[in-house]
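Field reference: sequence -> structure
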Amino acid sequence: MTTRRLQPCLLSLAIAALLASPLLAGQPGQAAGTATADGTTATLAFAASTTKENLFDESKKDTIVVLTDRALGDAAADDEVELSLRARRGELFVLMLRLDGGKLVNVGVCHKGLSGIALLPGAWFEYKPARAGGGTAAGSLKLATREFDGHSYACAVEFVAAAAAPARPAAVEEAPALVQPTPTLPPATTSNLDPKSLTPLLVQAMMQKDEAEALNLIKLGADPNGRDQYGTPVLNWAVMMCQPAVVKALVDAKASLTYERAPGMTIMQEAGACPEAAKILRAAGAR
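Structure field:
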């Protein structure tokens, strides 16, 4: 066979091999790429997948892909609270993709110094799914530099995620102290409490996973529409920390359901990581 006749055949074989090959040469559980927050770049090397209840259809499950720069260790892939706390301390850089079938709904970002999770709209990203074996999810994710809530983000990463182990009971962990000093809580019998003075205490209680104290502060008159020093409402904090009882108490106290951390980023989008909170908000009319 002549060289001229061989060339088309070799080209066809090369294309077929490329289409048949996985996105990454690596094994499930691996990622290859980088993510940047406020100019600091992390190399993402690990990928795990789990599932969460769909935001709008309780009969469906979304796929959650967690990409990190370090191994999760004893952290569960579906424990957003623990992952965000570790990221805030600088122990992890985390990207969390929520996939509804082949559609990217949003991407949560956790990084050093950030309180909670920055939830970026899926429409900002260039997401390409890839074929993967059973129990895995694969694809590529790109984001040109975008500003969100006072921070800048970018990423370019490929991944083949491995199914995460079942979640274990969350360990009680002390959360970092707030940046700003918090006032001393007045006696419960005081009749002239300033609702705004209770907001830092309420945020701190939620960060420390002290649900009873948070509910007590709401009963004492904490402003249901209060915001922390960065402008994040207490209702969003209750959702981010996945405390449904606190969410219910704030909703009952007439907390606003219309705040958006970015255009189109509704409270229901934020509640994607906490199905119980999503149910409460949906019943209250959140969209």
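Note: The beta strands are 30-37, 40-53, 61-68, 94-100, 103-110, 118-121, 126-130, 136-148, 151-163.
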